[in-house]
Amino acid sequence: AGTTIPARGFLALDQNQLGFRLSAAGEALYLYSPDGRRVIDAVRFEAQENGVSSGRQPDGASEQRRLATRTPGAANATWRPEPVVISEILYNPISGEDDDEYVELYNRSGATLDLSGWRFTSGIDLRIPQGVSVPAGGRLVVARNVARLRARHAHLNASNSVGNYDGTLSNGGERLAFAMPDTIASTNELGLVTSETVWIDVAEVTWEDGGRWGRWADGGGSSLELIDLNADPRRASNWADSDETGKGTWTTVEFTALSGGIFDVIKGLLMLVETPEERVREHHALKADEVGLTV
């Protein structure tokens, strides 16, 4: 009784003041009105790494983030830059084959990162095999069908690609999350210390079909790429369609159009591009000065 919080102020409570401890494996926390009849606020947090806090970022937002530093009784710190980030997603291949899907991970830290035992917790299902590491500034491709992908991309090999993951990426958008394992210890009611492995999401993105998300990544021949590898991967503005124009060849087409049909002809030409795989990519437009027309 008598506890107040000033405007835009904070109140920090430890486990002694609360009368209970929070689970490092994650749980839900509710704030009730004094009469216990109304929930004023609620938060559900996932497994937490020892010494790393999570919170609303920025203060008052609905989204929970791992934070760069702990700030009890003060404004929340910025979101925590993680050493690994999801940097590319091919969720709807132009081939229409799920086996052409892949996800790319990027090590944006300054040291080699051992990913042994790390796993995807949302979107797809795969645990990274033992002995897999990614050098600083390096990439690891996670494939739906790794043998098929290596056959199509000569630079991929056993050291920079793994698979096969279970499940498929949703063409309509979904949450994709990558987690590291951690062991937490706890004491049960009998005083015995037990341990368990939890999975801590350190890299994630939730993309959608449409809006600010790339148009051509949705079956148009492009993948989704994080355009700034140090930017916040949760923001749609930091993602874009991959540029596939270098894979196509310009084609000069000459023909005679029927009277009144010139605009239909130009529209058709702007949709015609032949790739090395002889696929049509609507978004690779022909330049007007490279198209010969006889009317």
Shape: globular
Could you give the distance between the termini?
87 Å
Count of extended strands: 15
Helix content: under 10%
Tell me the β content: 25-35%
Rounded radius of gyration (Å): 25 Å
Main β-sheet, in a few words?
6 strands, mixed
Q: Main sheet: which strands, in order across? A: 11-10-6-5-14-15
What low-confidence regions span 5 or more consecutive residues with pLDDT below 50?
Answer: 273-295
The helix-and-strand class reads: mainly beta
Write down the overall mean pLDDT. 87
In short:
The chain is mainly β. About 5% of the residues lie in helices and about 30% in strands.
Describe the structure.
With 295 residues, the protein is mostly beta strands. Helices cover 7% and strands 29% of the residues. It has helices spanning 15-18, 146-152, 262-270; strands at 27-32, 39-45, 54-56, 64-66, 84-90, 102-107, 113-114, 119-122, 133-134, 139-143, 161-163, 173-187, 193-208, 224-226, 239-241. The strands form five sheets. The chain has a six-stranded mixed sheet, with helices on one face. It has a three-stranded antiparallel sheet with strand order 8-12-13, with no helix packed on it. Strand 10, helix 2 and strand 11 form a beta-alpha-beta unit. The protein is globular.
Task: From the structure above, extract its key features.
295 residues, 6-stranded mixed β-sheet, disordered C terminus, mainly beta
Give the arrangement of secondary structure elements.
Elements: H1 15-18, E1 27-32, E2 39-45, E3 54-56, E4 64-66, E5 84-90, E6 102-107, E7 113-114, E8 119-122, E9 133-134, E10 139-143, H2 146-152, E11 161-163, E12 173-187, E13 193-208, E14 224-226, E15 239-241, H3 262-270
Parallel strand pairs: 10-11
Antiparallel strand pairs: 1-2, 3-4, 5-6, 5-14, 6-10, 7-9, 8-12, 12-13, 14-15
